[in-house]
Amino acid sequence: MNQNQAFNPLDHERIGKVFLRYLIPSLVGMLLMAVNLAVDGIMVGNKLGPVALAGVNIAGPVYTIFVGMSLWLGIGGATLYSQAMGRKESKQAQFIFTHSLALIGIGTLLIGVIAWLFHDPLVYALGANDETAPFAAAYMNVFLIFGFVFTLENAFSIFVRNDGNPTLAMAALVTTAFSNVGINYVILYVLDLGVREIAFGTILAATLGLLVLVSHFFTKRSNLKLVRLRFDALLAKRALLFGFPSFLAEVGISAFTISHNIMFARLAGTAGVAAFSVLNYVHGVMLLMFLGMGAAIQPIVSYFHGANQVEKKAEIMRIAIRTGFGVGIACFLIGQVAAVPIVNIFGDFPQEVKDLAVTGIRIFFIAYLVMGANFVLMTYFQSIGEVAIATWITAGRQILFMLLFLMTIPFLFGVTAIWLVIPLAEITVLLLLVVYLKRSRIHFGKKGLF
């Protein structure tokens, strides 16, 4: 046991303090990511026009693939890392870290090169036409070759958080977000360049964020060390297994957007799709906030699980679940009171679109009452290696129940019922989870909270 491990703050700090030390940086970092994406889109649309913006959006799935890769292996590897640290196995933890980074970097690079070789048909497969294809290809090709920088930054951020430095992980996200906006402003408004250079600017911003994260290597409390690498098939399989729910969550976001666009187009036409786009932007911010809650508890739960500190694990879950419900109630109330000004922020839409969007926000925000608890519970099971139940939670709320309700209730009750699909899916999953926890005799609360 080395000195850094003996005085790990997770072993000695009050649980409430530990939770806040991880929660606040995670929330700030995630919200900055949301703002960064929005500002980026606003600048491209205003300077280069709607066709260029459409081209960038068409290339968006490439970005999603890299995010999914970094989360899949990053969270999977980091969960194993924290469990090893909880068991005081620092050498094994360092090997897990090295192994995970190598798999992410090599895997992303291979996927990028193979996709680049078929970039022309890929662009059209993603939905481009002759007008948008040049912009989509220019943006996508840069990401295909240099996207491994972005995935390494994202994965390294996860490991730095798991190594007890959530503040530095937040600082890297702040650096990436603000430098991305600044670099892209210079590219567009000073140098008068285009989409290809915007993609390079995004990669450069990720590189700066990565450099911030590298500074963690030189801190006294860092356990992250690159060690001699050898491929471990069992470790790779476990990392892929543990991280799969996070990858599935990315798939679920795409399934949510595509399926709702199709249903609104079918039942409400262009006005319905426009109203949903407003809700989807707002939901993106809210979703990142709840993802931030999951990112906050994952290192803590994994560590306590590895250390076999059962009561501390239960206490952090009590705090996290109550926080999830509290944040959800606040979000729900904001939606009821401020639906109209929220819609107006996005522009001067026709009254039909405004009415649909306002109604949508007020109904859809019911989901946030329980979404926080579902995120926390999914992260809990993922963090202790109960991947089957974590995968079921993710698939249930974002794919299975969502699609089941989407293909039934709108045809029975009309277009307004589409907004109820996600709230019903979230509530159904939580109720089934409560039954599962009771039958499995899993409880976190001293007074019956789950």
| Major sheet description | none
The helicity comes to: over 70%
- How much beta, percentage-wise? under 5%
Task: Catalogue the unreliable spans.
Answer: 1-6
The total beta strand count reads: 0
Choose one word for the global shape. globular
Radius of gyration: 22 Å
Number of structural units classed as domains:
2
Strand/helix succession = HHHHHHHHHHHHHHHHH
What is the structural class? mainly alpha
Average residue pLDDT: 85
Number of helices: 17
Task: For the record, give the distance between the C-alpha atoms at the N and C termini, rounded to a whole number.
Answer: 36 Å
Describe the structure.
The structure is a single chain. The chain is built from 17 helices and no strands. It has helices spanning 3-6, 9-12, 15-48, 50-58, 60-86, 90-117, 119-125, 133-162, 166-190, 195-214, 233-306, 310-345, 351-364, 368-383, 387-406, 409-413, 421-439. Helix 3 (15-48) crosses helix 4 and helix 12 (310-345) runs antiparallel to helix 13. The longest helix is centred in the middle third of the chain and has 74 residues, at 233-306. The model is unreliable at 1-6 (pLDDT under 50).
Short description:
This protein has 450 residues and is mainly alpha-helical. The chain has two domains: 15-231, no CATH class; 283-439, no CATH class. It has helices spanning 3-6, 9-12, 15-48, 50-58, 60-86, 90-117, 119-125, 133-162, 166-190, 195-214, 233-306, 310-345, 351-364, 368-383, 387-406, 409-413, 421-439.
